[in-house]
Amino acid sequence: MRKICVVTGTRAEYGLLTPLMKEIEKDKDLQLQLVVTGTHLSPEFGLTYKEVAKEFTIDKKIEILLSSDSAIGTTKAMGLAQISFGEAFESLQPDIVLVLGDRYEIFAAVSCAMIARIPIAHLSGGELTLGAVDDAIRHAITKMSHLHFVATQEYKQRVMQLGENPQSVFNFGEAGLDNLRELELLEKDAFENSIEWKLNRKNILFTYHPTTLDSIEKIREDMQNILTFLATLQETHIIFTKANADSGGRVINEMLEEFVQEYTHARLFDSLGQLRYLSALAFVDAVVGNTSSGLVEAPSFKIGTINIGERQKGRVSAQSVIHTEVKELEKAFTKLYSLKFQESLKDIKNPYEGEKASYKTKEILKSVDLKKLIHKEFWDIPCDS
Questions:
Q1: What's residue 385's pLDDT?
Q2: Are residue 204 and residue 161 in the same domain, yes or no?
Q3: Side by side, which strands form the sheet with 266-269?
Q4: What is the CATH number of the domain that holds 60?
Q5: Are residues 214 and 145 in the same domain?
Q6: pLDDT tens, position by position, 12-26
Q7: For position 128, what pLDDT does the model report?
Q8: Which of 29, 132, 312, 332 is most buried, by CB atoms within 10 Å?
Q9: Would you say residue 268 lies in a domain?
Q10: Per-residue pLDDT reduced to its tens digit, 372-383
Q11: Is 179 part of any domain?
């Protein structure tokens, strides 16, 4: 059996990987190996590995998250991750390592697999997040990887610009969106019971991650200005989910905790989990903040997204996404609730949607000739000049 080792470090990336892991698990010719790390193992971020364990067998847990989210703390976490992943891959002996995205713990895992000459399959390459260090990490992972599964034609072109052979780059759409066809989402009453809170006439789902190319002071200032505006939305219920473990994340989370103690129209959750999060999208008016789910998943629910600042700048986005700066939030909300914009949502097409993306990706992982993957050559694109 071909062993496919999936690495997951966050709630968001796990949700996108779930349909593909299920496809791998049910294929009699494949063996799923699962390594969890990062915030999954942190009490501060909800110990989300427990949700993972309800669906899949976890083969390895790799503790890397330190109590600090400073630059030196993150660097030390990467070093610890690299040591631990080297040991994990030596033990598991996978045939392929499968990763998604752009986080530093994934970078550590991929660099270990590369040194161990294990073929690497990378999902969500070619994307841009110009406000975060993730942008450079993602492209570095692309160069260490051997198979690339991208979500749009634009991203496929960008991966090829990085020198990857077109025959190793596959555009099947976003595999994580298969969740929307496979999961039985909660009804409104069940969702309200699950969060122990009644929805209001207006509701938003808010997630804001640090812009890691900015200083902590700038992150704090922007967050304060955002919260000052959100405090005025007394007739709107705000469902907050915590920021991630990037540098500045704890600052944001502390500010959110203070906000919900003062204002009754907001609730804060460490993590909603995959089912509750996707169910929430069926009942809220918009995803607000700077999370990628506002661009990838929200359009499939025919709801708006208010994307704040630089973190997601450069990503392909549907017409349902309102890009704004912190100082323009009031204008963005006015547009969101305008009759013209609400009517336009009925015809929104999600640029990330494909057909059977998880199944098609699994079939490539199953059939590809592993011996030919390791010896990569740089694919030159002719220069017009």
A1: 54
A2: no
A3: 266-269, 236-241, 202-207, 286-289, 304-308, 321-324
A4: 3.40.50.2000
A5: no
A6: 899 899 999 999 999
A7: 87
A8: 312
A9: yes
A10: 999 999 999 877
A11: no
